[in-house]
Automatic annotation (TrEMBL):
InterPro entries for the chain: Beta-glucanase-like (IPR000757), ConA-like_dom_sf (IPR013320), Glycosyl_Hydrlase_16 (IPR050546)
Organism of provenance: Zasmidium cellare ATCC 36951
Gene3D superfamilies (UniProt xref): 2.60.120.200
PROSITE patterns membership: GH16_2
Protein name (record): endo-1,3(4)-beta-glucanase
Record has Transmembrane helix as a keyword: yes
Amino acid sequence: MYQNVNTRETEMIYSPTHGPPPPYDSIDSLGKTAPNGSTWNPKNWSKVTILCVIAAVVVVIAGIIVGAVIGTRENSYPDYSALAYTLEDTYSGTGFFDNFDYFTGYDPTSGFVHYVDSEVADSQQYNLTYASSSSAILRVDTTDTDASTGRYSVRITSKKQYNSGLFVFDIVNTPYGCSTWNALWLSDPNNWPTNGEIDIVEAVNQATSGNQATLHTASDCKMNVKRKQTGTVLSKNCYNGTDNNAGCGVQGAPSTYGQALNTAGGGIYAMEWRPEGIRIWFFPRASIPSDIPTDVSNTTAPDPSTWPTPLADFPNTNCDISSHFRNQSIIANIDLCGTWAGATSVYSDEDHCPGLCSDFVAGNNTAFETAVWQWNSWRVYTAA
Ligand SMILES: *[C@@H]1O[C@H](CO)[C@@H](O)[C@H](O)[C@H]1NC(C)=O
Ligand SMILES: *[C@@H]1O[C@H](CO)[C@@H](O)[C@H](O)[C@H]1NC(C)=O
Ligand SMILES: *[C@@H]1O[C@H](CO)[C@@H](O)[C@H](O)[C@H]1NC(C)=O
Ligand SMILES: *[C@@H]1O[C@H](CO)[C@@H](O)[C@H](O)[C@H]1NC(C)=O
Ligand SMILES: *[C@@H]1O[C@H](CO)[C@@H](O)[C@H](O)[C@H]1NC(C)=O
């Protein structure tokens, strides 16, 4: 579903296309024979020849200027120097889900799903969202053996909206399995794509090929610039009108999502959003930087400027981050089928899942035992 958007109008090389003027004995375009004398003496050139020479010089100068501008852009890179962060919000403990609205409308991405409200999700019967003092769980119903109009699942949206910050997600377990479309992301759903979307963790079906971190924006946001990241570029144009809203994605290694991540004890995803750019890191549990406290009672703020190269880097070089991203809520959900996970080219061809996606959802309740998000905490730090 991704095309490589690699068109660089910028890569033309300008060179003079006009050589020296023609030999003096040729007939110029005014039909007159050139006077005797050196071809190289401008006094002997016709008006047309002079105009041609001026045009050639202009083309060469324009080429030098354009080349310099392109060269500057290719080498330019924002200044991500340290910001003084302080802890603003901690989402943890038994009250974890109190900070969210439960989305209950039709799925905007056409999933075979019923997003339930907090009463159903929190009920003893379904128990789809559950928070203890140590962690929070969000999952898909595994009890309905005939979910013929779509299976129960959950999509939560933080009541609070943000305009920048350092977001630290301590993840114990990521959901996976045929038909699932799992995401932990930021957006302003009522003002999309104008206010942007930041997909921090997203994967579909068995999700064995790693996390995809992606931005979706209104027009004029491209990542065809210098970046410092370990992930693989999938697409460079973040504009939602490009490639059927594929966004500008960056893919992590297989260890960054799914069963591989879960068996390694989970880890921390961190996202820094500031005017200079948006960067996303993944740290497996065994290699969390020492300046990220895992104990939520410790309010010390981490310093991303000391961390290794991020998985994904979206600098502001050719995308005005401040105007493309505003009023973002934190959203987590597990969709089922829908425009990504359920597309035949993905569900069947790429991910080798059986039959029809909707049949799988309706009839395979026990398959959703692996469709579980579990978080220790989410923390948000802001800079003064
Ligand atoms: C809900 O799920 C949690 C976590 O799996 C579990 O500890 C708890 O006992 C469940 N509650 C009910 C009523 O089944
Ligand atoms: C992109 O966003 C515009 C504006 O909301 C919308 O009209 C259009 O349908 C979107 N395109 C896609 C492919 O989502
Ligand atoms: C809080 O966390 C920081 C960073 O991990 C650590 O250096 C500091 O010692 C911790 N403070 C306490 C009181 O544990
Ligand atoms: C952001 O939200 C605030 C408060 O609801 C609102 O006043 C403002 O217009 C919003 N800004 C944008 C760009 O949507
Ligand atoms: C249920 O899952 C099993 C194992 O993946 C699969 O073989 C079977 O085809 C699935 N059933 C449906 C109705 O999709």
